[in-house]
Amino acid sequence: MSSEHALRVMIVEDAAVISRYLLALVENVPGVALAAVTDSVSGALALLGQAEPDIIILDIHLPDGNGLTVLEAAKQRPHPPWVIVFTGSADYQYKRQALLAGAEYFIDKNKNFLQVEKALLEIIYQAEARQQNRDPA
Prior knowledge:
Blueprint: E1 7-12, H1 16-28, E2 32-38, H2 41-51, E3 55-58, E4 61-62, E5 65-66, H3 67-75, E6 82-87, H4 92-100, E7 105-108, H5 115-134
Parallel strand pairs: 1-2, 1-3, 3-6, 6-7
Antiparallel strand pairs: 4-5
């Protein structure tokens, strides 16, 4: 995927050290580009329309509310983004709620930190396949 067609990523994470890790990850994965970073539900909701992300990396517990609110709003958009829920609150109930609300990935940041890169690469592959199906050579 060329840089002009890079998928736009929005990071929604309130822990500064994790946010920096995710930022570095996005900067080093070919095929994606940073669209926005925020540490709150209100910031994410405001940025959805401005940044128009293709992918959201989303924490659940944020200072001003629950990240699942962002997930639900994102999935109502005309072109809903892929959502990677990346949280330390990986109990069954949150996972169930996130997947039912439309999250494509649910990753426990306490156990599977490296799975975020894998998820991004899978999404890039899916986006490329969709594009090829729309524009056959």
